[in-house]
Amino acid sequence: MNVIEVKGLVKKFGSFRAVDNISFEVDSGEFFGFLGPNGAGKTTTINILTTLLKPTEGRALVAGHDVSREKHKVRKSIGIVFQEGSLDDSLTAFEHLKFHGVFYDVPKKVYRARIEELLEIVGLEDRRNSLVKTFSGGMRRRLEIARGLIHRPRVLFLDEPTLGLDVQTRILVWDYIRSLGQREDVTIFLTTHNMEEAEFADRIAVIDHGNIIALDTPANLKKLVGKDIVMVQTAHNAQAKKEIKERWNVEAKEIDEHLVLEIENGPEFTPVLVRELSVAVEAISTRGVTLEDVFLHLTGRSIRDEGRDPESGFQRKLKIGR
Amino acid sequence: MHFLSVVYLIWLREILRQWRDRVRIFASFAMPFLFLLVMGRGISAGLSAFGVAPSFDYLQFIFPGIIGMTVMMTAIYQSISVVYDREFGFLKEMLVAPIPRWTIVFGKVLGLATLGLFQGFIVLMLAPLAGISLSGELILKALPVLMLLALSISSFGVALASRVKTIQGFQAIVPLPIVLMTFLAGTMYPLKNLPMDLEILAKIDPLTYGIDLLRQIFLSGTMSDELISQVTLFPWQLDLGVIIGFTLFMLAFASFTFRED
Questions:
Q1: Is A85 in CB contact (< 8 Å) with chain B?
Q2: CATH at A238
Protein backbone atom coordinates (compact mmCIF):
# COMPACT_ATOMS: atom_id res chain seq x y z
CA MET A 1 0.00 0.00 0.00
CA ASN A 2 1.30 3.43 -0.90
CA VAL A 3 1.77 5.78 2.01
CA ILE A 4 2.93 8.65 -0.20
CA GLU A 5 1.54 9.37 -3.66
CA VAL A 6 2.76 12.34 -5.65
CA LYS A 7 1.42 13.21 -9.07
CA GLY A 8 2.56 16.05 -11.35
CA LEU A 9 3.80 18.16 -8.46
CA VAL A 10 5.03 21.65 -9.35
CA LYS A 11 6.21 24.43 -7.07
CA LYS A 12 7.14 27.80 -8.50
CA PHE A 13 8.78 30.69 -6.66
CA GLY A 14 8.13 33.54 -9.04
CA SER A 15 9.28 32.20 -12.37
CA PHE A 16 11.73 29.72 -10.79
CA ARG A 17 10.46 26.14 -10.85
CA ALA A 18 11.92 24.67 -7.66
CA VAL A 19 9.96 21.45 -8.22
CA ASP A 20 9.12 20.75 -11.83
CA ASN A 21 6.43 18.18 -12.40
CA ILE A 22 7.51 15.21 -10.28
CA SER A 23 5.57 12.02 -9.63
CA PHE A 24 6.44 9.07 -7.40
CA GLU A 25 5.04 6.66 -4.84
CA VAL A 26 6.42 5.41 -1.56
CA ASP A 27 5.31 2.07 -0.22
CA SER A 28 4.33 1.60 3.42
CA GLY A 29 7.35 0.59 5.52
CA GLU A 30 9.78 1.59 2.83
CA PHE A 31 12.99 3.50 3.46
CA PHE A 32 12.89 6.03 0.66
CA GLY A 33 15.74 8.38 -0.21
CA PHE A 34 15.64 11.66 -2.06
CA LEU A 35 19.10 12.25 -3.41
CA GLY A 36 20.30 15.36 -5.15
CA PRO A 37 22.60 18.35 -4.91
CA ASN A 38 21.75 21.42 -2.85
CA GLY A 39 19.02 23.40 -4.53
CA ALA A 40 17.64 20.43 -6.47
CA GLY A 41 14.20 20.79 -4.86
CA LYS A 42 14.47 18.31 -1.99
CA THR A 43 13.51 20.62 0.84
CA THR A 44 10.76 22.23 -1.22
CA THR A 45 9.27 18.78 -1.82
CA ILE A 46 9.45 17.94 1.87
CA ASN A 47 7.87 21.26 2.79
CA ILE A 48 4.96 20.48 0.47
CA LEU A 49 4.55 16.91 1.74
CA THR A 50 4.57 18.19 5.34
CA THR A 51 1.90 20.87 4.58
CA LEU A 52 4.23 23.82 5.11
CA LEU A 53 4.13 24.91 1.48
CA LYS A 54 1.27 24.89 -0.96
CA PRO A 55 1.98 23.21 -4.30
CA THR A 56 1.52 25.37 -7.39
CA GLU A 57 0.18 22.41 -9.36
CA GLY A 58 -0.32 18.71 -8.92
CA ARG A 59 -1.42 16.51 -6.06
CA ALA A 60 0.24 14.84 -3.12
CA LEU A 61 -1.31 12.31 -0.76
CA VAL A 62 0.33 11.38 2.51
CA ALA A 63 -1.20 8.49 4.47
CA GLY A 64 -4.17 8.77 2.12
CA HIS A 65 -4.81 12.47 2.79
CA ASP A 66 -4.39 15.42 0.46
CA VAL A 67 -1.61 17.69 1.69
CA SER A 68 -3.32 20.92 0.72
CA ARG A 69 -6.91 20.04 1.61
CA GLU A 70 -6.56 17.77 4.64
CA LYS A 71 -3.64 19.37 6.41
CA HIS A 72 -4.80 18.41 9.85
CA LYS A 73 -5.02 14.69 9.02
CA VAL A 74 -1.69 14.75 7.21
CA ARG A 75 -0.05 16.47 10.18
CA LYS A 76 -1.36 13.84 12.56
CA SER A 77 0.22 11.06 10.53
CA ILE A 78 3.72 12.44 10.03
CA GLY A 79 6.82 13.21 12.05
CA ILE A 80 9.46 15.64 10.84
CA VAL A 81 13.09 16.33 11.53
CA PHE A 82 13.88 19.64 9.90
CA GLN A 83 17.14 20.47 8.19
CA GLU A 84 17.69 23.40 10.52
CA GLY A 85 17.17 22.73 14.22
CA SER A 86 13.77 23.25 15.78
CA LEU A 87 14.45 22.94 19.50
CA ASP A 88 14.03 25.50 22.27
CA ASP A 89 17.22 26.00 24.28
CA SER A 90 15.33 26.91 27.40
CA LEU A 91 13.42 23.63 27.62
CA THR A 92 14.67 20.24 28.78
CA ALA A 93 14.74 17.09 26.64
CA PHE A 94 11.81 15.68 28.56
CA GLU A 95 9.78 18.86 28.15
CA HIS A 96 10.28 18.82 24.39
CA LEU A 97 8.95 15.28 24.19
CA LYS A 98 6.07 16.02 26.52
CA PHE A 99 5.08 19.16 24.59
CA HIS A 100 5.08 17.11 21.43
CA GLY A 101 2.88 14.45 23.02
CA VAL A 102 0.35 17.08 24.05
CA PHE A 103 0.46 18.88 20.69
CA TYR A 104 -0.37 15.59 18.98
CA ASP A 105 -3.09 14.71 21.47
CA VAL A 106 -1.39 11.52 22.66
CA PRO A 107 -2.90 10.31 25.97
CA LYS A 108 -0.65 11.11 28.92
CA LYS A 109 -0.05 7.47 29.89
CA VAL A 110 0.91 6.61 26.33
CA TYR A 111 3.30 9.48 25.80
CA ARG A 112 4.93 8.91 29.17
CA ALA A 113 5.76 5.34 28.17
CA ARG A 114 6.81 6.39 24.67
CA ILE A 115 9.16 9.02 26.08
CA GLU A 116 10.98 6.40 28.19
CA GLU A 117 11.18 4.02 25.25
CA LEU A 118 12.46 6.63 22.80
CA LEU A 119 14.90 8.30 25.19
CA GLU A 120 16.52 4.91 25.52
CA ILE A 121 16.57 4.27 21.77
CA VAL A 122 18.36 7.56 21.11
CA GLY A 123 20.58 7.19 24.17
CA LEU A 124 19.48 10.30 26.03
CA GLU A 125 17.82 8.68 29.05
CA ASP A 126 20.31 10.14 31.52
CA ARG A 127 20.02 13.65 30.03
CA ARG A 128 16.25 13.85 30.14
CA ASN A 129 16.18 16.78 32.54
CA SER A 130 19.05 18.75 31.04
CA LEU A 131 18.31 21.96 29.21
CA VAL A 132 18.77 21.57 25.48
CA LYS A 133 21.23 24.47 25.43
CA THR A 134 23.77 22.11 27.01
CA PHE A 135 23.36 19.55 24.18
CA SER A 136 25.84 18.85 21.39
CA GLY A 137 24.76 18.86 17.73
CA GLY A 138 24.41 15.09 17.67
CA MET A 139 22.32 14.99 20.85
CA ARG A 140 20.02 17.65 19.45
CA ARG A 141 19.49 15.62 16.30
CA ARG A 142 18.75 12.46 18.26
CA LEU A 143 16.29 14.35 20.44
CA GLU A 144 14.55 15.69 17.35
CA ILE A 145 14.32 12.20 15.90
CA ALA A 146 12.84 10.86 19.14
CA ARG A 147 10.41 13.77 19.24
CA GLY A 148 9.25 13.09 15.69
CA LEU A 149 8.29 9.55 16.74
CA ILE A 150 6.33 10.24 19.97
CA HIS A 151 2.96 10.10 18.22
CA ARG A 152 3.78 6.97 16.19
CA PRO A 153 3.64 8.64 12.79
CA ARG A 154 3.06 6.63 9.62
CA VAL A 155 5.87 8.53 7.91
CA LEU A 156 8.98 10.10 9.38
CA PHE A 157 10.45 12.86 7.22
CA LEU A 158 14.14 13.52 7.69
CA ASP A 159 15.53 16.52 5.85
CA GLU A 160 19.32 16.17 5.66
CA PRO A 161 19.41 14.71 9.18
CA THR A 162 23.19 14.55 9.42
CA LEU A 163 23.96 17.95 7.91
CA GLY A 164 26.51 19.87 9.93
CA LEU A 165 27.44 16.95 12.17
CA ASP A 166 30.98 15.69 12.59
CA VAL A 167 31.84 12.28 11.15
CA GLN A 168 31.55 10.29 14.38
CA THR A 169 28.21 11.80 15.31
CA ARG A 170 27.04 11.35 11.77
CA ILE A 171 27.70 7.61 11.96
CA LEU A 172 25.96 7.40 15.34
CA VAL A 173 22.86 9.28 14.19
CA TRP A 174 22.83 7.24 11.05
CA ASP A 175 22.83 3.96 13.00
CA TYR A 176 19.75 5.13 14.89
CA ILE A 177 17.93 6.03 11.72
CA ARG A 178 18.73 2.69 10.09
CA SER A 179 17.48 0.70 13.04
CA LEU A 180 14.29 2.76 13.34
CA GLY A 181 12.61 1.23 10.32
CA GLN A 182 12.55 -2.20 11.96
CA ARG A 183 11.92 -1.08 15.51
CA GLU A 184 9.20 1.44 14.87
CA ASP A 185 7.35 0.15 11.83
CA VAL A 186 7.51 3.57 10.22
CA THR A 187 8.05 4.65 6.64
CA ILE A 188 11.16 6.79 6.36
CA PHE A 189 11.44 9.55 3.79
CA LEU A 190 14.90 11.00 3.79
CA THR A 191 16.61 13.70 1.78
CA THR A 192 20.36 13.82 1.49
CA HIS A 193 23.13 14.93 -0.76
CA ASN A 194 25.41 12.41 0.91
CA MET A 195 25.96 9.36 -1.29
CA GLU A 196 26.98 6.95 1.45
CA GLU A 197 23.81 7.72 3.37
CA ALA A 198 21.62 7.13 0.35
CA GLU A 199 23.13 3.64 -0.07
CA PHE A 200 21.02 2.33 2.80
CA ALA A 201 17.68 3.31 1.31
CA ASP A 202 15.37 0.69 -0.19
CA ARG A 203 14.79 2.97 -3.16
CA ILE A 204 16.27 6.26 -4.24
CA ALA A 205 14.86 9.07 -6.31
CA VAL A 206 17.67 11.06 -7.88
CA ILE A 207 16.51 14.67 -8.20
CA ASP A 208 18.18 17.43 -10.15
CA HIS A 209 16.87 20.90 -11.08
CA GLY A 210 13.45 20.02 -9.72
CA ASN A 211 13.12 16.83 -11.79
CA ILE A 212 13.37 13.18 -10.81
CA ILE A 213 15.92 11.83 -13.26
CA ALA A 214 16.03 8.26 -11.92
CA LEU A 215 14.15 6.20 -9.36
CA ASP A 216 15.19 2.70 -8.35
CA THR A 217 16.99 0.58 -5.76
CA PRO A 218 20.63 1.54 -5.15
CA ALA A 219 21.76 -1.74 -6.78
CA ASN A 220 19.72 -1.12 -9.93
CA LEU A 221 20.85 2.48 -10.13
CA LYS A 222 24.43 1.30 -10.06
CA LYS A 223 23.65 -1.06 -12.92
CA LEU A 224 22.86 2.06 -14.98
CA VAL A 225 26.56 2.70 -14.93
CA GLY A 226 27.12 -1.04 -15.05
CA LYS A 227 30.87 -0.96 -15.06
CA ASP A 228 33.89 -0.21 -12.91
CA ILE A 229 35.24 3.27 -12.45
CA VAL A 230 38.80 4.05 -13.44
CA MET A 231 40.26 7.33 -12.28
CA VAL A 232 43.43 8.46 -13.93
CA GLN A 233 45.61 11.53 -13.61
CA THR A 234 48.10 12.24 -16.39
CA ALA A 235 50.66 14.84 -17.33
CA HIS A 236 48.31 16.04 -20.08
CA ASN A 237 44.68 15.20 -19.43
CA ALA A 238 43.27 16.71 -22.63
CA GLN A 239 45.62 14.65 -24.76
CA ALA A 240 44.88 11.51 -22.76
CA LYS A 241 41.16 12.11 -23.10
CA LYS A 242 41.49 12.31 -26.86
CA GLU A 243 43.55 9.12 -27.08
CA ILE A 244 41.12 7.20 -24.86
CA LYS A 245 38.27 8.23 -27.12
CA GLU A 246 40.14 7.18 -30.29
CA ARG A 247 41.67 3.96 -28.97
CA TRP A 248 38.83 2.47 -26.82
CA ASN A 249 35.84 4.61 -27.80
CA VAL A 250 35.26 5.59 -24.14
CA GLU A 251 34.09 9.07 -23.16
CA ALA A 252 36.24 10.30 -20.25
CA LYS A 253 34.80 12.91 -17.92
CA GLU A 254 37.05 15.45 -16.37
CA ILE A 255 36.51 15.95 -12.64
CA ASP A 256 38.98 18.18 -10.87
CA GLU A 257 42.45 16.92 -11.91
CA HIS A 258 41.19 13.48 -12.88
CA LEU A 259 39.74 11.72 -15.85
CA VAL A 260 36.89 9.44 -14.89
CA LEU A 261 36.17 6.43 -17.12
CA GLU A 262 33.43 3.84 -16.98
CA ILE A 263 35.07 0.55 -17.94
CA GLU A 264 33.80 -3.05 -18.05
CA ASN A 265 36.70 -4.60 -16.15
CA GLY A 266 38.69 -1.95 -14.32
CA PRO A 267 41.48 -4.04 -12.77
CA GLU A 268 42.43 -5.56 -16.16
CA PHE A 269 42.12 -2.27 -18.00
CA THR A 270 44.41 -0.15 -15.83
CA PRO A 271 47.76 -1.74 -16.83
CA VAL A 272 46.75 -1.57 -20.50
CA LEU A 273 45.93 2.13 -20.17
CA VAL A 274 49.22 2.93 -18.47
CA ARG A 275 51.15 1.06 -21.16
CA GLU A 276 49.43 2.46 -24.21
CA LEU A 277 48.87 6.16 -23.39
CA SER A 278 51.42 8.46 -24.98
CA VAL A 279 51.33 10.85 -21.99
CA ALA A 280 52.76 9.95 -18.59
CA VAL A 281 50.28 8.53 -16.06
CA GLU A 282 50.77 10.15 -12.65
CA ALA A 283 48.12 8.28 -10.70
CA ILE A 284 45.54 5.63 -11.46
CA SER A 285 42.97 3.70 -9.50
CA THR A 286 39.95 1.55 -10.09
CA ARG A 287 36.92 0.79 -7.94
CA GLY A 288 33.33 -0.38 -8.04
CA VAL A 289 30.45 1.97 -8.83
CA THR A 290 29.07 4.29 -6.15
CA LEU A 291 25.94 6.45 -6.27
CA GLU A 292 28.22 9.40 -6.84
CA ASP A 293 29.12 7.81 -10.18
CA VAL A 294 25.45 7.26 -10.93
CA PHE A 295 24.78 10.96 -10.45
CA LEU A 296 27.76 11.82 -12.63
CA HIS A 297 26.58 9.34 -15.24
CA LEU A 298 23.07 10.82 -15.28
CA THR A 299 23.89 14.52 -15.18
CA GLY A 300 27.50 14.83 -16.33
CA ARG A 301 28.22 16.73 -13.12
CA SER A 302 29.58 15.78 -9.74
CA ILE A 303 27.04 16.20 -6.96
CA ARG A 304 29.60 18.13 -4.92
CA ASP A 305 30.14 20.72 -7.63
CA GLU A 306 27.00 22.58 -6.71
CA GLY A 307 27.17 25.93 -5.02
CA ARG A 308 25.31 27.05 -1.94
CA ASP A 309 21.76 26.01 -1.37
CA PRO A 310 19.43 28.48 -3.08
CA GLU A 311 16.54 26.75 -1.34
CA SER A 312 17.51 28.09 2.03
CA GLY A 313 16.68 31.53 0.68
CA PHE A 314 13.22 30.37 -0.23
CA GLN A 315 12.82 28.72 3.11
CA ARG A 316 13.19 32.08 4.77
CA LYS A 317 10.13 33.17 2.83
CA LEU A 318 8.12 30.58 4.68
CA LYS A 319 6.02 32.83 6.78
CA ILE A 320 3.09 32.20 8.98
CA GLY A 321 0.24 33.49 6.93
CA ARG A 322 1.02 33.56 3.27
CA MET B 1 -9.78 19.77 26.25
CA HIS B 2 -6.90 19.05 23.92
CA PHE B 3 -6.76 22.65 22.71
CA LEU B 4 -6.83 23.96 26.27
CA SER B 5 -3.82 21.82 27.18
CA VAL B 6 -2.01 23.10 24.11
CA VAL B 7 -2.72 26.73 25.03
CA TYR B 8 -1.62 25.99 28.59
CA LEU B 9 1.70 24.48 27.46
CA ILE B 10 2.49 27.33 25.11
CA TRP B 11 1.69 29.73 27.96
CA LEU B 12 3.85 27.69 30.33
CA ARG B 13 6.76 27.79 27.91
CA GLU B 14 6.83 31.60 27.97
CA ILE B 15 6.89 31.56 31.75
CA LEU B 16 9.59 28.87 31.95
CA ARG B 17 11.72 30.75 29.48
CA GLN B 18 11.56 33.89 31.57
CA TRP B 19 12.04 32.03 34.81
CA ARG B 20 15.14 30.16 33.64
CA ASP B 21 16.90 33.29 32.47
CA ARG B 22 18.50 34.98 35.49
CA VAL B 23 19.29 38.18 33.61
CA ARG B 24 15.71 38.61 32.52
CA ILE B 25 14.42 38.04 36.02
CA PHE B 26 16.80 40.61 37.40
CA ALA B 27 15.86 43.13 34.72
CA SER B 28 12.18 42.57 35.29
CA PHE B 29 12.56 43.51 38.95
CA ALA B 30 14.93 46.38 38.33
CA MET B 31 13.00 48.20 35.62
CA PRO B 32 9.94 49.21 37.66
CA PHE B 33 12.16 50.60 40.39
CA LEU B 34 14.04 52.64 37.84
CA PHE B 35 10.89 54.06 36.35
CA LEU B 36 9.43 55.10 39.65
CA LEU B 37 12.44 56.05 41.71
CA VAL B 38 14.53 57.63 38.98
CA MET B 39 12.18 58.87 36.31
CA GLY B 40 9.19 59.68 38.51
CA ARG B 41 11.11 61.45 41.22
CA GLY B 42 13.41 63.10 38.71
CA ILE B 43 10.64 64.73 36.71
CA SER B 44 8.82 65.62 39.89
CA ALA B 45 11.84 67.47 41.26
CA GLY B 46 12.69 69.04 37.92
CA LEU B 47 9.28 70.65 37.58
CA SER B 48 9.66 72.60 40.79
CA ALA B 49 12.97 74.01 39.56
CA PHE B 50 11.08 75.68 36.73
CA GLY B 51 8.70 77.16 39.25
CA VAL B 52 5.79 75.42 37.57
CA ALA B 53 5.16 72.93 40.33
CA PRO B 54 1.55 71.72 39.95
CA SER B 55 -1.02 72.16 42.65
CA PHE B 56 -1.05 68.39 43.19
CA ASP B 57 1.55 65.78 43.97
CA TYR B 58 3.19 65.05 40.65
CA LEU B 59 4.55 61.68 41.75
CA GLN B 60 0.99 60.59 42.50
CA PHE B 61 -0.12 61.85 39.12
CA ILE B 62 2.59 60.04 37.20
CA PHE B 63 2.33 56.74 39.12
CA PRO B 64 -0.62 55.25 37.15
CA GLY B 65 1.17 56.29 33.97
CA ILE B 66 4.28 54.41 35.04
CA ILE B 67 2.28 51.26 35.74
CA GLY B 68 0.57 51.44 32.35
CA MET B 69 3.84 52.12 30.58
CA THR B 70 5.59 49.24 32.36
CA VAL B 71 2.90 46.77 31.34
CA MET B 72 2.89 48.06 27.77
CA MET B 73 6.66 47.99 27.36
CA THR B 74 7.04 44.51 28.83
CA ALA B 75 4.28 43.08 26.68
CA ILE B 76 5.73 44.53 23.47
CA TYR B 77 9.35 43.69 24.22
CA GLN B 78 8.52 40.12 25.22
CA SER B 79 6.73 39.48 21.96
CA ILE B 80 10.19 39.18 20.43
CA SER B 81 9.80 35.54 21.52
CA VAL B 82 7.71 35.00 18.37
CA VAL B 83 10.68 36.16 16.27
CA TYR B 84 13.03 33.96 18.32
CA ASP B 85 10.78 30.98 17.71
CA ARG B 86 11.00 31.60 14.01
CA GLU B 87 14.77 32.10 14.05
CA PHE B 88 15.50 29.01 16.15
CA GLY B 89 12.94 26.80 14.51
CA PHE B 90 10.52 26.01 17.34
CA LEU B 91 7.80 27.86 15.44
CA LYS B 92 7.99 25.16 12.76
CA GLU B 93 7.47 22.45 15.35
CA MET B 94 4.23 24.22 16.31
CA LEU B 95 3.15 25.03 12.76
CA VAL B 96 3.31 21.40 11.57
CA ALA B 97 1.56 20.06 14.66
CA PRO B 98 -2.13 19.14 14.28
CA ILE B 99 -3.27 22.11 16.34
CA PRO B 100 -5.26 25.14 15.15
CA ARG B 101 -3.23 28.29 14.74
CA TRP B 102 -5.30 30.21 17.25
CA THR B 103 -4.02 27.96 20.04
CA ILE B 104 -0.48 29.16 19.27
CA VAL B 105 -1.63 32.79 19.26
CA PHE B 106 -3.64 32.50 22.47
CA GLY B 107 -0.88 30.62 24.29
CA LYS B 108 1.68 33.21 23.26
CA VAL B 109 -0.55 36.19 24.06
CA LEU B 110 -1.51 34.78 27.46
CA GLY B 111 2.14 34.05 28.26
CA LEU B 112 3.35 37.50 27.29
CA ALA B 113 0.41 39.15 29.04
CA THR B 114 1.25 37.23 32.21
CA LEU B 115 4.79 38.55 32.11
CA GLY B 116 3.50 42.10 31.56
CA LEU B 117 0.96 41.74 34.33
CA PHE B 118 3.64 40.44 36.66
CA GLN B 119 5.73 43.55 36.04
CA GLY B 120 2.70 45.75 36.51
CA PHE B 121 2.03 44.01 39.79
CA ILE B 122 5.52 44.78 41.07
CA VAL B 123 5.03 48.46 40.29
CA LEU B 124 1.62 48.34 41.93
CA MET B 125 3.23 47.15 45.14
CA LEU B 126 5.48 50.20 45.02
CA ALA B 127 2.49 52.55 45.22
CA PRO B 128 3.23 53.66 48.79
CA LEU B 129 6.56 55.03 47.54
CA ALA B 130 4.53 57.43 45.40
CA GLY B 131 2.38 58.42 48.33
CA ILE B 132 -0.59 56.27 47.34
CA SER B 133 -1.77 53.89 50.01
CA LEU B 134 -2.68 50.39 48.88
CA SER B 135 -6.00 48.90 49.75
CA GLY B 136 -7.60 45.61 48.78
CA GLU B 137 -10.24 47.50 46.84
CA LEU B 138 -7.67 49.43 44.86
CA ILE B 139 -5.76 46.26 43.93
CA LEU B 140 -8.97 44.49 42.91
CA LYS B 141 -9.92 47.39 40.67
CA ALA B 142 -6.48 47.92 39.18
CA LEU B 143 -5.61 44.28 38.39
CA PRO B 144 -8.34 43.64 35.80
CA VAL B 145 -7.44 46.86 34.02
CA LEU B 146 -3.77 45.89 33.98
CA MET B 147 -4.75 42.47 32.71
CA LEU B 148 -6.76 43.89 29.82
CA LEU B 149 -3.97 46.27 28.99
CA ALA B 150 -1.43 43.43 29.03
CA LEU B 151 -3.65 41.23 26.85
CA SER B 152 -4.31 43.89 24.24
CA ILE B 153 -0.72 45.05 23.95
CA SER B 154 0.59 41.45 23.85
CA SER B 155 -1.80 40.72 21.00
CA PHE B 156 -0.53 43.79 19.22
CA GLY B 157 3.05 42.63 19.87
CA VAL B 158 2.38 39.12 18.54
CA ALA B 159 0.73 40.51 15.41
CA LEU B 160 3.67 42.85 14.90
CA ALA B 161 6.24 40.10 15.52
CA SER B 162 4.52 37.73 13.12
CA ARG B 163 5.23 40.20 10.32
CA VAL B 164 8.87 40.83 11.24
CA LYS B 165 11.27 38.15 10.06
CA THR B 166 14.49 38.91 11.95
CA ILE B 167 15.46 39.73 15.50
CA GLN B 168 17.36 42.79 14.30
CA GLY B 169 14.31 43.98 12.42
CA PHE B 170 12.14 43.62 15.49
CA GLN B 171 14.60 45.47 17.67
CA ALA B 172 14.69 48.28 15.14
CA ILE B 173 10.93 48.67 14.86
CA VAL B 174 9.83 48.15 18.45
CA PRO B 175 10.86 51.53 19.93
CA LEU B 176 8.46 53.26 17.54
CA PRO B 177 5.17 52.01 18.98
CA ILE B 178 6.59 52.22 22.51
CA VAL B 179 7.63 55.86 22.27
CA LEU B 180 4.52 56.81 20.36
CA MET B 181 2.13 55.15 22.78
CA THR B 182 3.95 56.38 25.86
CA PHE B 183 4.03 60.04 24.94
CA LEU B 184 0.59 60.19 23.40
CA ALA B 185 -1.07 58.47 26.33
CA GLY B 186 -0.51 61.25 28.84
CA THR B 187 1.82 59.10 30.90
CA MET B 188 3.76 62.10 32.17
CA TYR B 189 1.49 65.05 31.54
CA PRO B 190 -2.25 65.65 31.47
CA LEU B 191 -3.63 65.57 27.95
CA LYS B 192 -5.03 69.08 28.13
CA ASN B 193 -4.63 72.04 25.75
CA LEU B 194 -2.96 69.81 23.17
CA PRO B 195 -2.47 70.91 19.55
CA MET B 196 -5.19 69.47 17.34
CA ASP B 197 -3.06 66.80 15.62
CA LEU B 198 -1.70 65.48 18.91
CA GLU B 199 -5.14 65.41 20.42
CA ILE B 200 -6.43 63.26 17.59
CA LEU B 201 -3.48 60.90 17.88
CA ALA B 202 -3.87 60.72 21.64
CA LYS B 203 -7.47 59.65 21.22
CA ILE B 204 -6.41 56.88 18.85
CA ASP B 205 -3.77 55.60 21.29
CA PRO B 206 -5.37 52.76 23.28
CA LEU B 207 -2.97 53.31 26.14
CA THR B 208 -4.59 56.73 26.69
CA TYR B 209 -7.76 55.05 27.88
CA GLY B 210 -5.90 52.53 30.00
CA ILE B 211 -3.92 55.17 31.83
CA ASP B 212 -6.94 57.44 32.15
CA LEU B 213 -8.80 54.64 33.86
CA LEU B 214 -5.86 53.69 36.06
CA ARG B 215 -5.51 57.31 37.10
CA GLN B 216 -9.11 57.47 38.23
CA ILE B 217 -8.66 54.26 40.21
CA PHE B 218 -5.40 55.25 41.89
CA LEU B 219 -6.17 58.86 42.64
CA SER B 220 -9.71 58.48 43.92
CA GLY B 221 -8.50 57.99 47.48
CA THR B 222 -5.80 60.64 47.50
CA MET B 223 -7.07 63.57 45.42
CA SER B 224 -10.25 65.56 45.46
CA ASP B 225 -12.83 64.71 42.81
CA GLU B 226 -12.42 68.13 41.32
CA LEU B 227 -8.69 67.72 40.91
CA ILE B 228 -9.17 64.26 39.41
CA SER B 229 -11.59 65.58 36.82
CA GLN B 230 -8.98 68.17 35.89
CA VAL B 231 -6.28 65.59 35.15
CA THR B 232 -8.43 62.89 33.59
CA LEU B 233 -10.29 62.83 30.27
CA PHE B 234 -13.19 60.42 30.00
CA PRO B 235 -15.80 58.72 32.18
CA TRP B 236 -14.47 55.39 33.43
CA GLN B 237 -17.16 53.45 31.55
CA LEU B 238 -15.88 54.81 28.25
CA ASP B 239 -12.28 54.00 29.18
CA LEU B 240 -13.19 50.45 30.11
CA GLY B 241 -15.30 49.96 27.00
CA VAL B 242 -12.52 51.12 24.71
CA ILE B 243 -9.95 48.86 26.38
CA ILE B 244 -12.19 45.80 26.18
CA GLY B 245 -13.00 46.55 22.55
CA PHE B 246 -9.36 47.09 21.69
CA THR B 247 -8.37 43.83 23.41
CA LEU B 248 -10.90 41.81 21.44
CA PHE B 249 -9.93 43.49 18.21
CA MET B 250 -6.23 42.89 18.77
CA LEU B 251 -6.75 39.22 19.70
CA ALA B 252 -8.71 38.70 16.51
CA PHE B 253 -6.07 40.57 14.53
CA ALA B 254 -3.22 38.51 15.97
CA SER B 255 -5.08 35.28 15.19
CA PHE B 256 -5.66 36.58 11.68
CA THR B 257 -1.95 37.16 11.08
CA PHE B 258 -1.29 33.51 12.01
CA ARG B 259 -4.06 32.05 9.85
CA GLU B 260 -3.60 29.11 7.50
CA ASP B 261 -3.89 29.89 3.86
A1: yes
A2: 3.30.70.260
3-state secondary structure labels for all residues of chain A: CEEEEEEEEEEEECCEEEEEEEEEEEECCCEEEEECCCCCCHHHHHHHHCCCCCCCEEEEEECCEECCCCHHHHHHCEEEECCCCCCCCCCEHHHHHHHHHHHCCCCHHHHHHHHHHHHHHCCCHHHCCCEHHHCCHHHHHHHHHHHHHCCCCCEEEEECCCCCCCHHHHHHHHHHHHHHHHHHCCEEEEEECCHHHHCCCCEEEEEECCEEEEEECHHHHHHHHCCEEEEEEECCHHHHHHHHHHHHCCCCEEECCEEEEEECCHHHHHHHHHHHCCCCEEEEEEECCCHHHHHHHHHCCCHHHCCCCCHHHHHHCCCCCC
Of A257, A265, A313, A266, the residue nearest A285 (C-alpha): A266
Q: Decide if A114 is inside a domain.
A: yes
pLDDT of residue B93 exceeding 50, the answer is: yes
Are A194 and A284 within one domain?
Answer: no
Q: Which residues of B touch A99 (CB under 8 A)?
A: 9, 13
Best probe of the B interface among A86, A131, A155, by most B CBs < 10 A, is A86
Q: Give the CATH number of the domain where residue A44 resides.
A: 3.40.50.300
> Using the 8-state DSSP alphabet, how is residue B223 labeled?
S
Structure confidence by residue, pLDDT tens digits, A220-251: 888 888 778 888 999 888 898 888 888 888 88
Chain A residues lying within 8 Å of B16, measured CB to CB: 90-91, 95
Is residue A191 domain-shared with residue A237, that is, in the same domain? no
**Chain CA centroid to CA A264, Å:** 29
Number of domains into which chain A is organized: 2
- Check whether residue A74 and residue A141 sit in a common domain: yes
Q: Which domain holds residue A243?
A: 227-288
Among the partner-chain residues B2, B92, B261, the one whose CB lies closest to the CB of A86 is B92
**pLDDT score of B52 more than 70:** no
What pLDDT, in 10s, does the model give residues B126-142?
A: 899 888 888 999 999 99
